[in-house]
Amino acid sequence: MNTRRRSFREQPRPRPQPQPQPPPAAMARFHALSDALYQAEQHERSRIPQQQNMREVVPTAEPRTTNWEPIIRTTSTVPPPATKASIEKLPDVEIVQMSECAICLVEFQVKEKAKEMPCKHRYHSNCINRWLEIHASCPICRYKMP
Fold it and tell me: Phi and psi (nearest 5°) for 66?
């Protein structure tokens, strides 16, 4: 009788269990995906000669010297700033509840004066004046100044 203990390495290894087969629908999706990838790769390979031909043509073309500055200036979609008159018409209101200026993110103090936009959003006078000198709309809701 063999009384020798087996070491860890001498332990018999369990036989691997056969893996369950994937469902037929999964195999069909796998094959469809692999076919699509193969077709995409073949399509890319067929485009390589076209790209090489383009590289031969493009370097011989004359460089463009278009000045884009006047075109950009005339087609700008940035709205003009608010008028000084509309900025001066903004009423001063007293803050009655804690909130913060959405421009500088500093909290208003109760009973502090603030400027109120027609959309009822409130800002520090300096903050909204500077904003409206660049933009003609409310920083929060984009209400356009009259």
Answer: -70, 135
How is residue 77 written in tokens? 């979609």
Q: Are 111 and 97 in contact (CB under 8 A)?
A: no
> Bridge-partner residues for 116, per DSSP?
122
Residues with Cβ < 8 Å from 93, sequence gap 6 or more? 113, 114, 115, 116, 122
Q: pLDDT tens, position by position, for the chain (146 residues)?
A: 555 665 566 667 777 788 777 777 777 788 888 888 888 777 776 665 565 666 665 555 555 656 666 666 666 666 788 999 999 999 999 999 989 999 999 999 999 999 999 999 999 999 999 999 989 999 999 999 87
Locate tokens 């001066």: which residue?
88
| This prediction's pTM | 0.48
For domain 84-132, give the CATH number.
3.30.40.10
User: How many Cβ atoms are within 10 Å of 73's Cβ, its own excluded?
Assistant: 8
Q: How far apart are CA 13 and CA 25, in angstroms?
A: 34
Q: Where do the domains of the chain lie?
A: 27-59, 84-132
Burial class (CB in 10 A: 0-12, 13-18, 19+), 129: middle
